[in-house]
Amino acid sequence: MGREEEMSTTSCKDIPNLLSSFVDTFVDFSVSGLFLPPPPPSPPPLPTRLPSPPRLVAVGDLHGDLEKSKQALRLAGLIDAHDRYIGGSATVVQVGDVLDRGGEELKILYFLEKLKREAARSGGRIVTMHGNHEIMNVEGDFRFATESGVEEFRVWWEWFRAGNKIKSLCQGLEKPKDPMKGVPSSFRGVRKEFHDGFRARVAALRPNGPIATRFLSENVTVLVVGDSIFVHGGLLPEHSSYGLEKINEEVRDWVKGLTGQLSPEYCRSADGLLWLRKFSRSKVPQCDCSALEHVLATVPGVKRMVMGHSIQRVGINGACDDKAIRIDVGLSKGCGDGLPEVLEISRNFGLRILTEDPLYQNKGNATMVDVGKEQGLGLLLGQQGGPKQVEVQA
Question: Where in the numbering of this chain does the Calcineurin-like phosphoesterase domain appear (predicted)?
């Protein structure tokens, strides 16, 4: 066989895979409006512990509000006016609750995936975490999904189904699996016009569903970065003794459909990692500092716990000498419409709140609130009347 003929044969064999890649790109763009850059050749493993980076940024709950999410990321200097990643070697942690209460849940998942790939090229890293609302949705609990959120998934399914039909016509490609297999055609208590959207949401987010596998299986449940531990709700001694790596692996396997329909108990219980409010109560004195210090002592090298889950009306604040940092500011329009704020931990400046709160504004520009050893986050914001919180019970 001549060289030209061999190259021609090889090119023909590649056509099915090229078609599949083109269809996936077309579907992604139709759903999200984004062209995703290629993933890194060797994706990093699911992290549980990361070394302390020069700059660490923590972002709270996003709840389906894409524009407010972008505002927070711009505030942190992580994206430019064209939504491109410019955060350099920073490590970014988003503490969960992308889903529910808003209508752009999928768009945020796609946008974060785009930034993850761009950050990897720049030597940075973006880590996304599970919140209780991710777990609820994978379990099929849609009590906090909005009409626009249900519609977004219905539109996703139309494009995804069209893409699968195109792939099924191509010889040389394995017939795509039907994600709707076993999904009910109707739902009690749900108006008929929403049934298609509910079916799409179930299909996409259930264990081993296309969206759950592609995006949510890359989330972690607990994460240590340097001397900070991140968790959506809170950590107890029994969780750390059970094993942080084990928790991440078990939740990932469940999202991938390897272990049944229900999530692990530590994801569902009131004192679980994603639901606990023991260290994020509405008043600082209600934070159990003794219990917190005991928990932190069970994770070597950790000085503080950073949490979302409970909305802090005064913005990001700390309790127990800044050993408990609460960063859910109710950002989404569907969940308080709070002013964007993010937490920055850096070698040069320590802990800082990056905020658009006019209380700390100078001539209308976003500013930084420095936190020194004598004056911690809790004390600083306490001067404005004490940390307050709107508890949104899910």
Answer: 55-310
Is 370 among the domain residues?
A: yes
Q: Does the pLDDT at position 391 exceed 50?
A: no
Q: Give the residue among 66, 68, 64, 88 at the shortest CA–CA distance from 78.
A: 88
Residue 143 makes CB contacts below 8 A (sequence gap 6+) with 136, 394
**What is the C-alpha to C-alpha distance for residues 222 and 220, in angstroms, rounded to an integer?**
6
Is the CB of residue 283 less than 8 Å from the CB of residue 387? yes
Question: What residue numbers bound the domain in which 358 lies?
Answer: 49-141+207-390
Host H or E run for residue 141? none
Question: For the chain, what is the domain count?
Answer: 1
Catalytic residues: 133
**CB-count exposure of residue 386 (10 Å: 0-12, 13-18, 19+):** middle
For the record, the structure tokens of 53 come out as 């980076």
DSSP 325-392: EE-----SGGGT-PPPEEEEEETTTEEEEEE--GGG-BTTB-EEEEE-SSS-HHHHHHTTT---EE--
In a domain, residue 211? The reply is yes
Judge whether 41 lies within some domain.
no
Name the DSSP class of 313. Answer: T
CATH code of residue 344: 3.60.21.10
Rg (CA), the chain: 22
What is the pLDDT, as a whole number, of residue 249? Answer: 97
Cα separation, 347 vs 51, whole angstroms:
12
| Residue 287 included in any domain | yes
Mean pLDDT of all residues belonging to the chain: 88
Which residue, among 82, 83, 78, has the nearest Cα to 126 in the 3D structure?
Answer: 78
Distance CA 264, CA 251 (A): 7
Calpha distance 166→375 (Å, rounded): 61
